[in-house]
Structures are given as structure tokens and as C-alpha cells.
Amino acid sequence: xxxxxxxxxxxxxNQIDGExxxxxxxxxxxxxxxxxxxxxxxxVNTCGFxxxxxxxxxxxxxxxVQLKEDGTVKKVVVTGCLAQRYQNEILDEIPEVDxxxxxxxxxxxVAVCDRVxxxxxxxxFPAKEELPLGGERVLTTPEYYAYLKIAExxxxxxxxxxxxxxxxxxxxxxxDDIVDEAAQLAEKxxxxxxxxxxxxxxxxxxxxxxxxxxxLLKKLCAVDGIHWIRLLYCYPDEFTDxxxxxxxxxxxxxxxxxxxxxxxxxxxxxxxxxxxxAEQAAELIEKLRERIPDIVLRTTFxxxxxxEGEAEFEDLAVxxxxxEFDCLGCFAYSxxxxxxxxxxxxQVEERVKNDRKDIIMNDQYSIMQEKHEALxxxxxxxxxxxxxxxxxxxxxRTYRDAPEIDSIIKFTSTDEWNEGDFCMVxxxxxxxxxxxxxxxx
Length: 441
Hints:
Layout: E1 2-8, H1 12-27, E2 30-32, E3 39-46, H2 51-70, E4 73-80, H3 81-86, H4 88-93, E5 99-101, H5 109-117, E6 122-124, E7 145-149, E8 151-152, H6 163-167, E9 171-172, H7 175-187, E10 192-196, H8 205-208, H9 213-221, E11 228-231, H10 241-249, E12 253-258, H11 266-271, H12 278-291, E13 296-303, H13 310-323, E14 327-332, H14 350-373, E15 379-388, E16 393-397, E17 409-412, E18 422-431, E19 434-439
Parallel strand pairs: 1-2, 1-3, 3-4, 4-5, 5-6, 7-10, 10-11, 11-12, 12-13, 13-14, 17-19
Antiparallel strand pairs: 8-9, 15-16, 15-18, 16-17, 18-19
Helix pairs in contact: 9-10, 13-14
């Protein structure tokens, strides 16, 4: 029996790639185990998007190399975005690694593992466009929710971002293939589908010559067993009135939008190669809130982008405080090698970047507290995710919260609930970032 330990890092899109790798290995007779308990092969499916992600990936690779030196792991294989981005550099700098394979080699993972067990050192980097858009998966999420990739790659070419270099141009997945996978996931017990791509709103433009996300959503809503459909990574540029109408009318589509804006000063947005101005973003947000009054808006911003002075940062801070997003993530700019912005001359000091990030996040914390307190007395449908014996309460998520990045709701009940159940919970309090409630009798 051949055993494999698997570590997957980074975003849900990379997590899906990892699940496809696991399915291939499972079909080939490999057994998944904890690498720290001893395995034949440890696979590190890496992220390579920003500096912190690269550091995390390298730390995990070095951990597996140490296990190899200790005799706990026999071979170490590196896959994912860091492998695609740095290729032979990983083998040159960490020669203890047995294989480094790019995204285009994902369909060959079984052969790669067999080769390293036969004492080969493998470095394979087919065209990144050979990365499969779909395929069988071994879910690594709880059985009641799953990410569903609808496209791969990106055409936006933001000046700070290395994704087009790593994953190539935008490639939509065939609609029927997506719907078929959704039906298969529903048969396995999945109740919440979370749609992901580098830019979900662009879906279909390359394949069908039109923005086809609204059509796709309608077809996914017809899949029996799916209860919630959540949208992530919706760029504002292609957020059409048709998409807003579908969100407003289709009951399964949650009133939740992840809308990465990145900044709110037009000079900085232009330097980022973002096509949406601050005014256009504000108009879209106003339209969304008018058409869907209970819409939850999540966004991300970058502080310290080259050229961001006090005036440009002030525009961002004012926008955040005036717009009052429900959920917000802010990141200090990371100068990624090979991107245009890394070569810009007017870089901002690390201390200033981080101070500005802290200001935005502190402001957002106050906004979120006010918004959470306004929810007291309201009742929400909750997806049950577990039971905490220490607090003697259940916990779960409302439509307002995506898994792992947003808040949870802790609640009590006289009835028993299982993971994946839905129940109605009335909010009666706030605990830091989370809500407190009880099941309605």
C-alpha cells in the first residue's frame, strides 16, 4: 500500500486543484495519511501569490524535507502556484525535494509519484493551459459545502498581480460541465455551492461571446439538493443589471457579494490597471443596495501601493467609512517580482503600508460592530457547522458569512442538530466578531 500526505495552501481555487489531485491518487490506489505519521510521499500544493503566501509555502516544504531527513517521509513533491512560478529554482535551492511540477502537470500526478518512488527526480512544466478545468474530486471541505470552479486564469493584468503569469489567460469552463458537477456534489450531500474563479463576473465571455454568469446561476438553481449558492470574486466591471436581477429573484442565490475593489483613489486605480473608478464602484454599490436591500458586501483593499501618498490614502479611508462594507479585508502592498508595479519608482515604506492597513482594519472593526448590533432581534436561517462542548452551544453561518473568512453565529437550542442542517436562529447578542443567538421555538 502506497501512502501520500497532502498539504494544500492558498485560495479555494488551489484547494479545488488539490482535491482533483487527491481523486487521481485515490483511484490509483494511494492512501491519504497524515505526513507527520509517516508516508511514502508528502505533497505540498503551494500558493505563490504574495510574499506571505510564498513564505508559508517554503516553510511547509522545509517541514516536509525535515520529515524526509528524519525518515518519516520518503519523498517530497511540490505542486501548485509556487511550483509553477519558480520551477527549477525550487530544486536548485532545496535539492532535497524529489519533484517540482507545474499546474499543467496536475493530470500526471500519479505518474509523477510513481516516478519519484522509483528514485527519479522529476521537474515537469507543461503549458499552464493544460491544467484541467474540472474532474473528479475528493472533497476537503465539510460534506455540506463545496467550492465550484467556473473558470481558470485571468485577463485583467492588474499591475500588482502575478496570477496571469502563473495561471495564464481567462478560460471559462463549459456550462453543462459545471452543472453536472453541481448535481454530483448535491448527490454527495453538498448543500452550499461557492462559485469561484479569478473573476466570476467575466464567466462565459471567452466561451460564448457573452457574460453568462446569470444564465449559469439559473441552471445551478435548478439542481435538486442545492440550498445556497454563494458568489466570490465578482469584479465590478462586469457586474450587470441582469446579474443583479438574478440575485434578487433566484431564492437559492445568496444576497452576498465578494466585490474586490482594491482602492478608492482614481490615480492609484489607474496605476493598478483597474478599470472601475471609485465613482463607478460607489454607483454599483448604491444600485445593489437599492435593488437588494439586505445585500451583504465584502471587499478587499490594498494599502501602500506605489504612489499612494497621504491624499490618496485619505480617499481610501473616507470611502471605507462612508460606504460601510459588511465585511472587509485589507492587505499591505506586496511588490511581486515580474509584475509592472514592482518596478515603479515611488514605492511606499513597509512601516507606512502596515500602519495604513491597521487604520483601515480598525475603522472596519467599528463599522462591523455597529452592523452586527443592528442585527440583534432579527432571525436568520443558519447552516449548522458544529457543536462546541466548552460553551455548550452550536455554531454555524448565516447567508452573511462565507466559510473561513467571515464571522460565525453561536447559538443555543433545546433540539439536537447535525452538521449541515438548517435552522432558524434569532440574534440576541454580539461577541467580538461573531453573533450570539438561540433557535426559535
